[in-house]
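Q: Structure for this?
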Amino acid sequence: MNSTIAELNKRFKAALVAAFGAELADVDPMLVASSNPKFGDVQANVAMSLTKRLGLAPRAIAEQLIQQLDLSPYCESPTVAGPGFINLRLTREYLEAQLQQMHQDERLAVPLAKQPQRTIVDFSSPNIAKEMHVGHLRSTIIGDSIARILEFLGHDVLRLNHVGDWGTQFGMLITHLRESYPDALTTANALALGDLTTFYKQAKQRFDTDEDFQVRSRQEVVALQSGNADTLKAWQLLCDQSRLAFQEIYDLLDVRIQERGESFYNPLLSSVVEDLAQAELLVEDQGAKVVFLEGFTNKEGKPLPLIIQKTGGGYNYATTDLAAIRYRTQQDQAERVIYITDAGQANHFAQVFQVAARAGWIPAHVELEHVPFGVVQGEDGKKFKTRSGETVRLKDLLEEAIARAYADLDARLIAENRSEPEEFKTQVATAVGIGAVKYADLSQNRTSNYIFSYDKMLALQGNTAPYMLYAYVRVQGISRKGSIDFANLGADRAILVQDEMERTLAVALLQFDEVLNTVAVDLYPNRLCQYLFELSQTFNQFYDRCPVLQAEEPLRTSRLMLCDLTARTLKQGLTLLGISTVERM
RNA sequence: GCUCCAGUAGCUCAGCCGGAUAGAGCAACUGCCUUCUAAGCAGUCGGUCGCAGGUUCGAGUCCUGCCUGGGGCGCCA
């Protein structure tokens, strides 16, 4: 449909010039999808906007404009309505031809980007020696979906996990490891850090209460930074153990990501300081090396500094992030760098981006984007915690969702007198449970806070994963019932758009590429969710009103093709959200 | 004190460069299973878009001020 809008745009521009003269060549016809189906498929809002410029009534402008409009073969004759809207309705022949094209194309007629961009999506980013928790949920889910969408559109995407694998906290972790698990350093696989959270807490507690421990920890930090072999080994061990735990979660979520943690940038930090000094941005202030920011002020109204090197020579996260920006633009040759973090870091990124820009590390064609999201809240509206007030472990959260989906399914099977093998139940419960968690998150505008509710996300009706999975299953039900092989319906068979219901479904299907392109620009996956939900609803209406298997040929095959197109679009869309489909449920 | 984000139906949320009577879902109520899975469909009820100004032919959307909630604000990430 994108190409359709583009073509209609050209026709409108030509008509504007023909009707009102060449000076209107640059006017945007303001074509958008119709606000209401009764107004057709597309509407042009340009007439109202020209009232002043042309000194004419908007309706008169619209009337004159449509006299010059040639919209064949796309649209039927345009009509003018209300204060001057121009309403367009796509022709049946055109819709049928477009659907045919979509049906024959593996990619559902979604074109590859004309200018593929080297894109980095920086997401998830848990901390070594800590368990992944609910705070990592949104970044991981949203980041993965954005990466999937950009990849599908043909961009060259590098998914990076900027894990917290460096810094002062490793002093206490390594010291605790050495003292409490001495075998781990000498014996292979002696360490079973079953519960990283407990390990971290123990270390933290000793650090907070034992002064000698603190001293030894600080020494370990120095040892780590100076590359002491023994210390590095302990560090490596902690990282490896954490990776195993992370990977379990990523496998469950079906998320691919490449690790490039903070330690990766460690050797580059000193040159960041040098570069900033060279660029004459670096200032010594109260013992630290800082860059004073433009547009950020402290409580006294004076420019706020960004600390690059702490008193005593240490670096902090701003330094690492600056090193990462420089590396990504210079070594990775990234053209677009997308950071998926909570909204609380908005200031930090604005500051770091500013310094990077002033240092000259961001070429004109490169864009850095912070993609913020709101916090996950419990049903009481407060920060999401367990009943005992602890942070919710991601693993527990996901397992709970699967368990609940399983219980729902089981109860339903019993109620319907169905019997299914264990493998089936587990598979469906996993798809539904994980899908529900992901969909609930993605379907909301990411900038707002999000209230986590198992009951709502697993609800069988409404804008949920189960509803959409069910719509998909319904199509597969038709193919089973009629022993239809969707892959071999025959490329020569025609798709007919006769019934108004078929037409509505056709128009919805053809909007898929448009939606994906919008999401690729704005990075709001909830638009894709909204689209898939509406497509599911439209399909369910079609399913309700238009018999498929009982229809006479050639209508039967035509409707089967519409079903197949719907299923493929749903499946592709859900895949781009990171949600897997099932054939039966 | 400064700053960022949010405030839309009883609840959870959409609303894409400003465009037609502000849309869903849930909840409540009413219908529809001899017909492809009713995890569905059709319908009813429900809104001073936080408040007050302003810009505009037109404002939920843009601007200003205020109120409420959440986050951030020099050596944590």
